[in-house]
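Lay summary. Proteins are chains of building blocks that fold into shapes, and those shapes determine what they do. In this project we predict the shape from the chain. Here is one chain we studied, written as its sequence of building blocks.
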Amino acid sequence: ISEIAGGRDYQEFGSLEEVKEVYTGTNEAENKIVAMAEMLFMQEHKPAKVAIACTAPAEEGASTPALVDLLNSVYDRDWYYLLCLDNTQDTILALADIVEANKRKLFVTRTSTDTVLEAVNAKDYSRTVVFFHEPVGEYADAGLVGECGSRTVGEITWKFKTIRGLTPAEYTQTKIDNIHENGGICYITKAGDKITSEGIVVNGEYIDVVNAMDWIQFNVEYRVQKLFNSNPKIPYTNNGISLIENEVLGVLQAAYNNGIISENDDNMPEYSTDFPGRSENQVEDRQKREYNLGSFEATLSGAVHFAVIRGYLSY
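And here is the predicted shape, written in a compact code that computers can read:
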């Protein structure tokens, strides 16, 4: 999202060329929007489409910032990663607050100042990624989403990823550690490769874990809703309850197949469900046609980000 004279309605684009047809470069803001789109589409694992929405700057004395109103107006549209052209501290905090409150989305932003990084870290956000990147005109946030955002959830970790168009920083380990401690990530060179230094949101949780939780929640809700939509009736019987449970089991199996859920020492998926039968539900719930006792448990597979290897040499 961005501010631009006159504003532009929410629109989806399948290529950089399509973006350029609408954002023709008549002002600086349009040029920057095109530059961000270029970072998205130049990546090896580029997205199939991106959405852009712009608002006119708020009038003087407006009760809320224009970008806040814009985000609220498009929040329920079909997108997941939020990028914003404006990366000033007030804007980052305002947009991150909205995402934190409404869930279901992930905000990826960028900064080149310690002050902003520390201000965002103080909020302990669980749905905001801050990319610390100093070269002007290199949209690290867009590059990160372009490379990682469209990969199958469970397939990757966001650490160790190469982003086309980014210049790696020559930071000391102390500087890198400080960025991580403040909830940010950066772009560095290790073992001769240009890679992301970490894959975390501001509060230290891993991005792929947030993706995994959202993926499971969305797909459980979606599949159960589809079950209701496609059947004349789901009876409040043990068989009807089993139909709901089977949809949840299908999501968990897919999550295991994608690498989200781990397996035990017997190489079996580590998930289970508990859907008590009709007799165990309250009469009041049956009268209201609400089934509230279903639950599941699963163990995330996680990823290895660091290894300690001990070796012994002798004659």
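What the prediction tells us: The first strand starts at residue 2 and ends at 3.
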